[in-house]
Amino acid sequence: MNIVETDYWCLMLPPEWSAEQEDGVIRIIDQDGIGELALTTLVQESGASGTNSVSALAELVAAESPEVTEWAPARCGAFSGLEGRCEEDATQIREWYLAHGEALLYITYVCELADAGMDDAAVDEILGTLVAGDALSQH
C-alpha cells in the first residue's frame, strides 16, 4: 500500500494506483488509466460558520454542482458529507463533498461512460481509508 498524505488528510492506495500533486489538486490514477480520482482540500478559517452541517453542504452542492440531481449521504473514513453522480458528454462523474473539522474535501472520479462502474469498488475502498491529518486532529 502507498500512502498519500497532506496536512489535512491521509489515505492509502493499492499498489496499482499512483498519485501526483498538481496546482493543489491530488490526482490519483490506476495503471489501467480507466479513470481519474481528484481531491481538492479547502480549509475554512477557525470560527467561521462551516460547511459541516448537512444543510450547509446541501446549499454548497446545489450552487457548485447543479448538474448532479440526486445526492446521498456519504461517509469516507473520518470525513462525511454528500455524494452524487452525473453524466456529461461521454463521461461519468462521481462527486463528493466531505467535511471534517475545518477541512472540506471536494473529490471527483471521472471516467469514460463505457467504463462507468469498473473502478467504483476500488475508489470506494480508497476513500474508505481517509483519516484526518495532523492539522485537523488538534481541533
Give the tags:
alpha+beta; Protein Transport Mog1p, Chain A; 139 residues; seven-stranded antiparallel sheet
Radius of gyration: 15 Å
Could you please say which CATH topology applies here? Protein Transport Mog1p, Chain A
CATH superfamily: Mog1/PsbP, alpha/beta/alpha sandwich
Mean pLDDT equals: 89
Q: Can you give the helix content as a percent range?
A: 10-25%
Q: What share of residues are in beta strands?
A: over 45%
Strands ordered across the widest β-sheet: 3-4-5-9-8-7-6
What is the name of the CATH architecture? 3-Layer(aba) Sandwich
Number of helices: 3
Uncertain stretches of 5 or more adjacent residues: none
Tell how many strands the DSSP assignment holds. Answer: 10
Largest sheet: 7 strands, antiparallel
Q: Tell me the number of structural domains.
A: 1
